[in-house]
Amino acid sequence: MNRFSRLFALLAMAVLAGCGKPEFSDAEKKTIASLALSALPPLKADTTNRFADVPAAAALGATLFFDAGMSGDGKVSCSTCHKIDRQFQDDLPRAVGVGRTNRRTMPLAGVAHYVWFFWDGRRDSLWAQALAPLENPLEQAGNRAAYAHYIKARFGERYERIFGPLPDLSNVPANASPLGSDAEKAAWNAMSGAQAEDVNHVFANIGKAIAAFERSIAPPQTRFDRFAAALDTGIQAPQDDDALSPEEILGLKLFIGKANCVTCHSGPRFTDSGFHNTGVPPVANLPPDRGRIDAVAQVEADPFNCFGAFRDGDASACGELRFMVKAGPELVRAYKTPSLRGAATRAPYMHAGQFSSLEEVVAHYSKALASVEGVSEIHPLQLSDRERAALVAFLKTLAE
């Protein structure tokens, strides 16, 4: 640490650790208030899924979420990667279902507030997202005809109370999908159009039920939120259990100031829900991963997207898809800004687990190395060791 940095740190600590309350400008207080969980707006209705807030649908969705029968081998469920006791993620660099995937499992708290889903945004609704792992050969590795038969055999009565009568599946092959193995594709292509539509309709409702359950997963209040509430009311005292330490306050000031973290990690979920190239390096021996630029074609081709036949409601809900940015250098190796809530307890980090600790993450942003493809949006922060440690200390308050 150079002489100037040491002096800056000492002065900051002296101010923050003084006999009075921590000092924040009006602009800082406004920003801090915007980050508090109390600023999270009520969850909007999902007009593309009329079952999104139906308790019976959420109950069925919870059953399906934890049911290993919802997989090709009968051993993997949504909860295999989204573990209920681990913030609905798995602590692995890359998720492991039937096989090992190429990306990190994302936590689910507050997921219903997102517009785009997955690290690259290749699905445009929570219910469409829920369908993708079911047929992914590395995740649950099933096929949609088999899922339709499974629902009818095991959950038929519950399904029909929510969604109405199941179609006649007696002549539908046991295994068929436009994705999957050659045999599954051939079986799908041999089906009539009406049969395919029936299966797709049941499959879409599976996603809608799972999404109804996932909408209920909300982020918990943290020590930062309690601090923000006390700061807003003006009753925060240095000795309070929820008070931030001088180091944590310095980290907060850096987060919303000099370090510019709040530029992307904004709002009460600590994410702008956007896609950014931040120069995160690729992982050796994994297939090329170009992020958002390749996801555009995938979301457009998805038969379950907002323009598709299985959307509830009218197309007025499809503004994001209609006005989606489809091309541009800013999409190359751009990934969704993850929420920082609870991040301190769910290492490793980034879309493929490239960094093992928050210290490594902060060091990456401090150095701001060039991206291997496209142009990184970040610039060197020139943070001292003390400032890096303070940032990490603050981030830990989002998980306590």
From TrEMBL:
Organism: Mesorhizobium prunaredense
The Cytochrome c domain, residue ranges: 56-155, 246-399
Binding of heme c 1, residues: C78, C81, H82
Primary localisation category: periplasm
Listed PANTHER family: CYTOCHROME C PEROXIDASE-RELATED
Highest taxon, organism lineage: Bacteria
Protein's name according to its UniProt entry: Methylamine utilization protein
InterPro entries: Cyt_c-like_dom, Cyt_c-like_dom_sf, Cytochrome_c_Peroxidase/MauG, Di-haem_cyt_c_peroxidsae, MauG/Cytc_peroxidase
